[in-house]
């Protein structure tokens, strides 16, 4: 097999599919290659669906704030897909004074960036969401945060990109990226080669193995993330929930089920050997016990399914969104550290601008891959 295009994108998650769409809108020919047999089968289908600004690193805030203002409100219409975007706020919960100090620090840094977020006490928390327990003594409250459906959002971008001529090939792992005349131009797969003027690697943690032979190392680690979904419940609340320690997060979907994620504390211990991450009988009960302390009204809710996936956690907790240093034609989008879904549309829009010689809507300097280089 041999194929040429203006741009090759490696990875069909929210970043890859959305970038393909925004490039195709500009008349750019795009081929998307993915090792998996299904679109968005990595982190883009294995997350809690948060579209939030609160609790983020200040370096990420301008981009996600731009996306929430300019992309998310009309995304369903643009993609002709119900992405289930709900903008009813985010409560980031605290149960101890230490939690409140953490939340206050995050709030102060977000306010300095212009975000509408404030600290509230336990009574105000329960006035917004009466189902939360009395253990919650305070929270940060961001009324412009929300949530959406990762599956339908990624699928919507994929569908629209294809309508505009983008080509998606699944079950096609990229083994190597080769240079021609000093530029990254060729993606080698078991079935042949694909050639393009520019190559974007948006393959999560697997990005590192593809860029390292070209002299570009993005320091990342695999972090296991797990989610669960309950049976449908009567409508209870529309906010996104999170915690100061980021050990629990979730929301109620438009059809009534709850989607929750969380950490167990067991993730670093022996689980990295798994080729494909799976849920275990230990993890879901740990998450559920944490949820019930915050949200006792769900104590009897039945779990329908659980799932797990790898998060590509960068060394400093924010992504790389950049043309690779020293490798013309190679672009990288990885290391989203569990924050990739909500920021994904804005990141993809920015990449499409940069790759076509345009001006991104926000400064991408904080996301340069050169930030990891040793300072001499």
UniProtKB/TrEMBL annotation:
GO CC annotation terms, alphabetical: cytoplasm
InterPro entries given in the database record: FAD-dep_OxRdtase, FAD/NAD-bd_sf
One Pfam family of this chain: DAO
Every FAD dependent oxidoreductase domain range: 6-353
Record Gene3D superfamilies: D-Amino Acid Oxidase, subunit A, domain 2, FAD/NAD(P)-binding domain
GO function terms (MF aspect): oxidoreductase activity
Superkingdom per UniProt: Bacteria
Keywords of this entry: Oxidoreductase
Protein's name in the database: FAD-binding oxidoreductase
Organism listed in the record: Caproicibacterium amylolyticum
Upper classification of the organism: Bacteria, Bacillati, Bacillota, Clostridia, Eubacteriales
